[in-house]
Amino acid sequence: MELQHFSHEHPLTFSKKSNKKLSCSGCRLPLSGGPTYSCDECSYVLHYLCAKVPQKMHDVAHKKHPLTLLLDTPNCNGEFVCSACGDTGKGFHYNCATCQFSIDVHCALIPESLKHHSHSHPLSLKASTSSSHCAACGEPNEGISFGCLDCKKKRSFELHVYCVTLPITIKHKGHDHALSLRSSYELNEEQKSVSCTICSKRINQKLWYYGCNTCNKVVAHTECAASMVLYGAQNGVEKMQKPHRIHLMKRNILAGRIEECGQWYP
């Protein structure tokens, strides 16, 4: 199956699997072994989703004008700052020339609404307010987030886009059982607090965490568990800073994990 993509002079061939050591010529992120379109004559390769994004679109984060897909930024270093996640990137992104608004293709692929397992109502993509906090991690919301319109008058329920992409279960070679995502921790009569198995810091009982349902020997912050899987980090809090969270979010979007979170075994 061939595709003549406007970004490249040669036809691109579809492949179900890709070389994890290579990066996408469009968004510049790793291929991660998923489906791609690649050139048989040179090293040009695109994620399947990057090859399929439209050249023009309207986005919920910028409703004033249509956005145009740019292959690169016409400035000296070729970089742009995504208005949605705040990340600095290169390569494919959408731009509004009138407002100087830019958004990378991954954030542009985020659906306007979804049903998440953590909440009873549908969640809608919205511009975050400075006073709102994420129900999963407790940190302030920036750029865009998912919020419940039904709960707005009673109590605000909002999630970072990154937290929405967290998988329900993860598996690491250092532990025999899968870790499940949980929304709150209930202390037993003998416990005054609970600490993360990875970083040894206290876990907030009201925030999300990962725990082992089989042996109950592992309890971890979401970022510590994610960094342990991604980077093999012993101290997840030091490793999983904002750039890593954004990178993980984009990997999950590319893998189709934003609407239906399944098992994650990198």
UniProtKB/TrEMBL annotation:
<feature type="domain" description="DC1">
    <location>
        <begin position="174"/>
        <end position="225"/>
    </location>
</feature>
<dbReference type="InterPro" id="IPR004146">
    <property type="entry name" value="DC1"/>
</dbReference>
<protein>
    <recommendedName>
        <fullName>DC1 domain-containing protein</fullName>
    </recommendedName>
</protein>
<feature type="domain" description="DC1">
    <location>
        <begin position="117"/>
        <end position="164"/>
    </location>
</feature>
<dbReference type="InterPro" id="IPR046349">
    <property type="entry name" value="C1-like_sf"/>
</dbReference>
<feature type="domain" description="DC1">
    <location>
        <begin position="6"/>
        <end position="51"/>
    </location>
</feature>
<dbReference type="InterPro" id="IPR013083">
    <property type="entry name" value="Znf_RING/FYVE/PHD"/>
</dbReference>
<feature type="domain" description="DC1">
    <location>
        <begin position="62"/>
        <end position="108"/>
    </location>
</feature>
<dbReference type="Pfam" id="PF03107">
    <property type="entry name" value="C1_2"/>
</dbReference>
<keyword id="KW-0677">Repeat</keyword>
